[in-house]
Design brief:
With 201 residues, the protein is an alpha/beta fold. The chain is 49% helix and 14% strand.
Length: 201
């Protein structure tokens, strides 16, 4: 079956991802120890709740961060620190544009409303050409939950065999394959260049 849809991840594919750097930036902006930032915003389950749709807009996320940490600085400071894990990879975007052919291009990412608002504002050129931006908070489910993949298929109006999926997580790749998607683990722009040559699985 022909792949009519090219679906790619954000952090680790379209953008390089460095969570340790984000923790350092947030610790500096929030004036809190790094371990406390990690405990309050990640180990508490807050970040996962953002990704899962508990908060429907960026303002709610900011308010919760302020309440949890006592931060009184500007939204801009908070936005930049929160999204500092993401560094755009222009080579990947250019490779996607060259190799997508006639396929639709879709983003499928575990992220919340604050990332969506800020990254689209800071790096609008990185999202050019995408037909759909499927952030997990809008789906109500996160990868590797099979339900998230089913929702994406429905949003695309596609059969599983029509989807070519590129992600950096082996767990996400395994889930996609178990549902009949063709899935390839991202290892660099060359993954995208070779993808059309790979057999359907």
């Amino acid at each position: 079956m022909r792949h009519h849809h090219l679906v790619v991840d954000l952090g680790g594919v379209l953008f390089a991802f460095d969570h340790a750097h984000r923790l350092q930036q947030l610790a500096a902006v929030l004036s809190l120890p790094l371990a406390q930032v990690d405990k309050l915003l990640w180990k508490s389950g807050f970040s996962a709740d953002c990704d899962s749709g508990r908060y429907t807009n960026a303002a709610q996320v900011r308010d919760r961060i302020r309440g949890a940490t006592g931060f009184t600085g500007s939204n801009e400071q908070l936005d930049i620190a929160w999204c500092s894990a993401f560094r755009p990879d222009h080579r990947v975007r250019e490779t996607l544009v060259r190799h997508r052919g006639s396929r639709s291009l879709t983003l499928f990412t575990n992220n919340g409303p604050l990332e969506e608002e800020v990254l689209l504002r800071l790096y609008p050129e990185m999202f050019n050409g995408f037909g759909q931006l499927l952030f997990s908070y809008r789906l109500g489910r996160r990868k590797p939950d099979p339900g998230a993949f089913v929702v994406v298929s429905k949003r695309l109006g596609a059969e599983p065999g029509e989807i070519l999926f590129i992600d950096d997580s082996p767990t996400n790749i395994d889930t996609a394959r178990s549902l009949g998607w063709t899935a390839i683990q991202f290892r660099g722009p060359e993954t995208i260049e070779c993808a059309p040559q790979l057999p359907i699985r």
